[in-house]
Amino acid sequence: MLKPLHLFYCASLLGLTTISGFFLLLYHCSPVLYYLCTGILLGSVGYCVVLYLAPKSRVSGNGKAVFITGCDSGFGFRLAKRLDSLGFTVFAGCLLADSGGEGSKTLRAECSSRLSTVQIDVTDDGQVQAAVQQVKDRLPAGSKGLYALVNNAGVWQPGQIEWVGIAAYRRVMEVNAFGTVRVTKAFLPLIRRAKGRVVNISSEAGLHSPPTVSAYHMTKAAIEFFSDALRHEMHKWGVKVVIVQPGSFARATDIVLPAVFNAFVEVRRLDH
Asked: Is residue 59 situated within a structural domain?
């Protein structure tokens, strides 16, 4: 059986052979088309080379503040560390910031003084408003507002539709969908001031749904449409709205750890 690298070599050789044959045929049958196609091909290759070699622009983090939800682990945790390393002022929203969560402890220990952890349960109006006030009080000097909000917090809910209780559907919708709406609405005034951006972590799960994960996929579809509407409404304010659709990173984000499954089983038992 051919290895992937060998398949790549064979496909490349076949492609080059086909292109060479095509150009040879053009040269003998229609010299004008031959020179035209050759020019287009060389121009395209040159353009790609220039794009590859050109210096890549990077936004400076100096004086820019970002608030991220779901930083206890996974994407949020890694994004907070990355943005801190790039010079941004990072507000890392953690569900367990005030109760000794390992994620918040690690962020405080390993990141610069520009990063601060913020206690936030995205289903709690009081904690969301307290988070907004904390951000207002700690914005960088000279900052007009919040450069970016990243709605990343989320939970997963497995199970066939017939087995999953209504309470479980409500719980995952409250965190993933309504939590995103609640946090976005609370931070929009700060984002408008800076003409910033809202980044919503959706998923390829928002585009289709296989069996046993309907509750989770419903929430991601809701985020997709919420983001589309918000993008149109915020355009006049110069605010950008971005959807990020990761693929299958469940194991990397700790969302399907055995403890998580056990918790879902226990909740289902109580629901019934």
From this structure: no
